[in-house]
Amino acid sequence: MSKKIVIGNWKMNPASLKEAEKLFTETVKMLSDVKKTEVVICSPFLYLEKLKKISKKISLGAQNIFWEEVGAYTGEVSGDMVYNIGAKYVILGHSERRNFFGGGENNEIVNKKIKSAIKSGLIPIICVGENVRDENHEYLNFVKKQIEECFNGISKNSISKIIIAYEPVWAIGKGAYPATPEEFREMNIFIRKILSDKFGLSNIEGVRIIYGGSVDEKNALDFIIEGKADGFLPGRASLNPKKFSKIVKICETLNK
Ligand code: PEP
Q1: Atom 4 in ligand 1: residue holding the nearest Cα
Q2: The model's pTM
Q3: Does the Cβ of 179 fall within 6 Å of ligand 1?
């Protein structure tokens, strides 16, 4: 069984470096006794360098990269830049980037970014998930297409390094309800099957499939026990050190 991982997605928060340092420091303090769980904070680009100096206990990640290495791409940040600043992970294909205000990223763009992240030495966290659950189960085809297109041309060797976050869009954000652990479990099996068919691998146990979408300290345990989640990608809960650390500690008690 792989080590559980909890990845906080701060999104476009907080508004100042000072607040970011405070939030990170408080989070680090609350996790001082955590030894077996991998903890990652994906902060805005601007804060990564400073946060890196506060503690090595928590790994850092970005929330996006551009697929080119350097050049005339105004406003973009490359995988090399993120890696060279000391970050280890990058979230790619988050639903907020796939929608219109994130520039409408499609699977083809996410695929280019995954390849670029791997080339830069970053571990990609690929978000997939349907917008709605329809009665005809079309959402299964939607997720299958996301996985197949996002993983086009990725080598077999890279697969075990990638983390997949199943984040149904309907479960994300304020006022939303999380998926049930059973719904996640089903998707977990489904995603593993798609990967094993695509890559001809009989054993894809090494791929970590985590859950995101209104995760909190109350539902995390069930997602691991019943859903067999390898970890979590909390959004709002990552901005609350108490809640976030409780989620990590649930993983810690279950990590071997
Ligand atoms: C997310 O957007 O990645 C997310 C899971 O957000 P939240 O936990 O706030 O629903």
Answers
A1: 235
A2: 0.97
A3: no
